Amino acid sequence: MILTNKVLCDLCGNCVAVCPQSCIEINHYCLKISHEQCIECQNCVAVCPSAALKQVQDDKN
Amino acid sequence: MIKTEYDIVVVGGGPAGTTAARHAAEQGVSVAVFHRNNEIGAPVRCAEGISRFIIEKYLGKENIRDSWISSESDKCRLISPSGKIVDVHLKESGYILNRRIFDMDLADWAARKGAQIFTGAFVYHVEKHETHALVFIEQYGKKYQVKAKLVIAADGVESRIARFFGVKTQLRPCDIDSCAQVLATNIAMQKDRIDFWVSQKIAPGGYIWLFPKGDGIANIGIGISGQHNGEKNARQYLDEFLAVNFSEASILTNILGGVPVAEPLESFVADGLMIIGDAARVANPVTGEGIGPALSTGTRAGKVGGRAILEKDTSAKFLKAFEKEWRRDSGKYNGFFYRLKEVILNISDEELDRLAEKFADRDPVSITLTEVFRKVVWNKPKLLVDVARAFAGF
Ligand SMILES: Cc1cc2nc3c(=O)[nH]c(=O)nc-3n(C[C@H](O)[C@H](O)[C@H](O)COP(=O)(O)OP(=O)(O)OC[C@H]3O[C@@H](n4cnc5c(N)ncnc54)[C@H](O)[C@@H]3O)c2cc1C
After folding, report:
1. Which of A12, A17, A51 minimises the CB distance to B45?
2. Distance (Å, rounded) from C-alpha B275 to C-alpha B297?
3. Residue B29 pLDDT class (50, 70, 90 cuts)
4. Which of B11, B22, B59, B370 could in theory staple to B110 by disulfide, Cβ–Cβ 3.0 to 4.6 A?
């Protein structure tokens, strides 16, 4: 699962730009990832300028 | 008040969106601009540089206000990995804007021409129908549904709106620059010179810039290729650079951002849709300049979009006119700059130093950017010709 660190996130939108699933949106001042659609390709992690996004082991697994 | 119907809905209140809105509204059609942030023009995710020629071309010399301009530069310094300096005098001077005021004035201008601007208004969905689109908006907890004959997607680097029309706008990580920037004061610098540090070590696949905003105050930022932004990210690279080079600086603003350094979208239109500015991936892939392209696409889209409403034809075929004109005029070098980017990305620090060496002891007035880039691509004959053409104005 991809998790967001709200302290580091500046809502710049890079992750939205590269998400092949279009499952990230910036709703006003809040970054939202729709985990059901996420395929964990990590494009978003790669382009984040401040490591605000991180992949962690899903609880379910 | 948000109405239930507009001829044109513009998503995004950056320079592309408000410029398009103004040109459309001038033709007497109804236009609404929905902007997600609570304030137009902030935060400033931009180094604010623009060529004088471009801003005058699209906004008119007589309309340019002093309050938009922080400083003017006609010199450019390139600093190689080992600190060798190449000074270049630019033929055409550039402005460093004050985008907080600039963006706000462009929106104000559009509003005075009849467009309605809504801030804090997030477009979360668009539904395409045969003759119109339904635009879904959330503003301060309230939801609205607006009918539009034409949607103009000016939603910046994210470019999500066009996807609701089936246009694929997603970027590959190698086609986006990951950026961090500060507005810093107590900086030792020259007020009329922009500086660039190029080095794979301090800014892999990109560079660091210093754009003067006034005496001792500057935008200092970094853009690195998304593919190199890994173990260490843009913010960390910038922090390290500042610690070494400007340890006495005070940081007044901190921002992160992204520049699409891609080829423009294959198509900027679909039935009932126009895509402009960063959303259309029209920024210059080498320099990252996107304000000019936002104005050039916005101007043309607003004019053609307004006409489409008046002539009751919002088909992709009709709207395409704006894109064709843009590609013929402003966008003719984007493809070349993209190929140049690929070359620049792979230059080693040793080679950069060797290149800088070639300009040692030369008078800056005699050095042009054309010459610098010619030396960069000397072993790529195909690009050589393009360099001469594309940098002709510098
Ligand atoms: C660090 C950095 C430095 C730069 N330096 C320069 C420079 O020196 N010179 C230059 O020319 N260019 C520069 N650029 C690029 C320039 O900032 C952009 O190209 C320019 O702002 C693009 O204008 P735009 O109108 O297309 O998009 P933006 O200015 O990005 O405006 C789009 C707006 O749409 C809003 N939006 C997005 N989605 C929605 C939605 N669903 N609903 C409502 N609103 C939405 C966003 O909040 C955003 O404010 C730089 C960029 C960065 C990141």
Report:
1. A12
2. 8
3. very high
4. B22
* pLDDT value of residue B264: 98
Q: Which residues contact A11 (CB under 8 A, 6 or more apart)?
A: A26, A29, A31
Task: Output DSSP code: residue B251.
Answer: E
pLDDT at residue B69, rounded to an integer: 97
Closest-CA residue in chain A for B175?
Answer: A18
Chain A residue with Cα closest to B163: A22
Whether the CB-CB separation of B144 and A14 falls below 8 Å is answered with no
Domains of chain A, first to last: 2-48 (3.30.70.20)
Average pLDDT over every residue of B77-98: 92
The least confident of B129-143, B257-271, B346-360 is B346-360
**CA-based nearest distance A7→chain B, Å:** 13
The 10s digit of each residue's pLDDT in B233-244 is 999 999 999 999
Nearest to B12 by CA among B144, B155, B126, B136: B155
Report yes or no: A46 at the B interface, CB cutoff 8 Å.
Answer: yes
Atom of ligand 1 nearest to the CA of B255: 1
Mean per-residue pLDDT, B362-385: 81
Query: Phi and psi for B174 in degrees, rounded to 5?
Result: -75, -10
Q: For residues B129 and B131, give the distance between their C-alpha atoms in angstroms, rounded to a whole number.
A: 6
CA-CA distance, B126 to B141, in Å (whole number)?
18
Q: Which residues of B touch A22 (CB under 8 A)?
A: 160, 163, 170
Cα–Cα distance between B167 and B270 in angstroms, integer?
Answer: 8
pLDDT in tens, B93-120: 899 999 999 999 999 999 999 999 999 9
Please name the residue of chain B whose CA is at the shortest distance from the CA of residue A9: B256
Pairwise CA distance, residues B277 & B19, whole Å: 10
B256 Cβ contact list (under 8 Å, min separation 6) = A10, A12, A14, A49, A50, B45, B179, B180, B181, B234, B235
Check B179 against A20: CB less than 8 A apart. Answer: no
Domains of chain B: 5-45+100-171+264-329 (3.50.50.60), 69-97+172-261+333-394 (3.30.9.10)
* Distance of residue A43 Cα from the nearest chain B Cα, in angstroms: 6
For A18, which of B120, B173, B256 is closest by C-beta distance? Answer: B173
